[in-house]
Amino acid sequence: MGGKLNLSLKQQRGMSYWGWLLVIAVVGFVLTCVSKMAPAYVDARYVSEGLKSLGQNPNLENMTSGQIKNDLSRFFLVNNVRGEPTKSVKVVRGSKGSVVSINYELRQPLIYNVDVVMKFNKQLDTAKPELCCDPLIDLEQFRKRD
Fold first, then answer.
1. What is the model's pTM?
2. Among 92, 98, 88, 91, which Cα is nearest to 44's?
3. Is 133 helix (H, G, I), strand (E, B) or coil?
4. Residue 3 above 70 pLDDT?
């Protein structure tokens, strides 16, 4: 009976040194990814909230492009959104309303020469503000005409 007990205790030793090292390396990599990429996704959330609050403005149809950009800039300032989202606000006027687009790309260095590229495309169609903030139209077709 003692031989079987010793055999089962040897099998229940737990993870080896290399097993723990692998777990720590994977957890470290995941934490590095989260710490580098999370701020961009927090900013993207605030961009969506800014477009939604703009869509709830009853005077949105009468606002000029400059007023729309100023309204969004104030929202971004209060919520500490900086960088690409604030620079990439575009307003395209159409016959049935306007489209406010915030389309940008962020490149974040991850480890040494490895970068993570994150793309964000948020749109608000003033004719359909309830459909905020997923892209409804491709604004590239308007840019090609210009």
1. 0.76
2. 88
3. strand
4. no
